Amino acid sequence: MKEKRTMADSEGKRHVFQEEIIKKYKKTLIAIKVDYPGNNKDNYLTKNIIGCVDNILTDIFKDKVYLKIFRITEEGPIITILLNLDSYEVKKTCIEIEDKHALGGIIDIEVYDLNGKIIDRQSVGYEEKRCIICGESASKCKKLNSHSISEILENMKHIYTEYIGKHFNEVY
Question: Is 80 exceeded by the pLDDT of residue 49?
Answer without folding.
Answer: yes
